[in-house]
Design goal:
Shape: globular
Pfam families: DHH, DHHA1
Oligomer: single chain
Distance between the termini: 24 Å
Structural class: alpha/beta
Helix content: 25-40%
Strand order of the largest sheet: 1-6-5-4-2-3
Number of helices: 11
GO molecular function: nucleic acid binding
InterPro entries: DDH_dom, DHH_sf, DHHA1_dom, Oligoribo/pAp-PDE_c-di-AMP_PDE
Protein name: Phosphoesterase RecJ domain protein
CATH superfamily of the largest domain: inorganic pyrophosphatase (n-terminal core)
Largest sheet: 6 strands, mixed
């Protein structure tokens, strides 16, 4: 069930109309929701005669290169931005190393239940199917969507609901999807780009992940990990691990899946997925991260993957 945490929609719509040089942030290690939402805003601002810029510290994953505007991402905030729109980003540390310019109004649009409303203006509906549903509502207030906006938002909604398989999917997500498809979107094209275009290098990485799966039947937990060496030896990048954790959660008898990926020599990214009423967002928050009831994650400073799992098991 979704929960309205912050609702500054009117102020946000006013700022969308008045700003001239908006910056639009996607979070680090971007997924389809943050990319699709940012690009939908980018296209709307452009149509309104503004000069927007999309920003992300990380590189955009290969599977999202088909989205219109995906090549326009930049890694530096222009000095003349007059508003900052941050999408699908639960905490400020998810900005990465960007330093927000002082005095520039900030907008936080998100669906994570752990979002604490860190911006000047916040529109946060916890446990909404995707941030895409919130962006859709805002854009509809300003006028009908066009094809490029619809393609970006459909991709955002489709990926963040796992192809409408996750518990977060509901009547709203399907109704919005239908309206987006009515703009001429080919759902099979999106499916192929996201889920049916795995490189051979990624297959080799996936094999390593599956080879290391540990299943604790008593605790109903499955976990696996990948190291920097795995990425280097298979010729892959961090974003190629996206979706691996879902295979762990899909194991019969698993209630909580944990995937640990080494990002640097002394840091790991930990992801959780759960079934039913097991709230992994609370566990993620305990480590300084965030997320949803059935999906969460955090970064941890450590050099030993086994020590990382020991700390996690103490909380589970």
């Amino acid at each position: 069930m979704s929960v309205t945490l912050f609702d500054d929609r009117e102020e946000i719509l006013s700022l969308m109309s008045s700003c001239q040089r908006p910056g639009i942030f996607s979070h680090v290690n971007p997924d389809g929701d943050t990319i699709g939402c940012a690009l939908a805003l980018y296209h709307r601002f452009t149509a309104m005669g503004k000069d927007p810029v999309v920003l992300c510290e990380s590189s955009i994953p290969r599977e999202y290169a088909f989205l219109p505007g995906a090549r326009n991402y930049r890694k530096q905030i222009p000095a003349d931005v007059d508003a900052l729109f941050i999408v699908d980003t639960s905490t400020v540390d998810r900005f990465g190393n960007f330093e927000l310019p002082p005095g520039v109004p900030t907008v936080n649009i998100d669906h994570h239940i752990t979002n604490r409303g860190y911006a000047d203006y916040n529109y946060v509906i916890g446990e909404a199917p995707a941030t895409a549903t919130l962006i859709y509502e805002l854009l509809e207030k300003l006028g009908p969507l066009v094809f490029d906006e619809a393609l970006c938002l459909y991709t955002a909604l489709f990926t963040d609901t796992g192809g409408f398989r996750y518990a977060s999917s509901n009547v709203q997500s399907h109704l919005i999807a239908a309206k987006l498809l009515a703009k001429g979107i080919d759902p099979w094209q999106v499916t192929v780009e996201i889920y049916e275009s795995m490189t051979w290098e990624k297959v080799q990485l996936y094999k390593r992940c599956l080879d290391r799966v540990v299943f604790d039947r008593k605790k109903a937990i499955a976990w696996s990990y990948l190291t920097l060496s795995d990425l280097q030896e298979t010729g892959t990048v961090a974003s190629d691990t996206d979706g691996f954790i879902n295979s762990l959660r899909a194991i019969d008898g698993v209630e909580v899946a944990v995937f640990v990926r080494q990002d640097t020599a002394d840091s790991f990214k930990v992801s959780f997925r759960s079934k039913g009423n097991i709230d992994v967002s609370a566990i993620s928050e305990a480590f300084g991260g965030g997320g949803h009831r059935n999906a969460g994650g955090f970064q941890i400073q450590c050099t030993d993957v086994n020590r990382v799992m020991e700390q996690i098991c103490e909380k589970l």
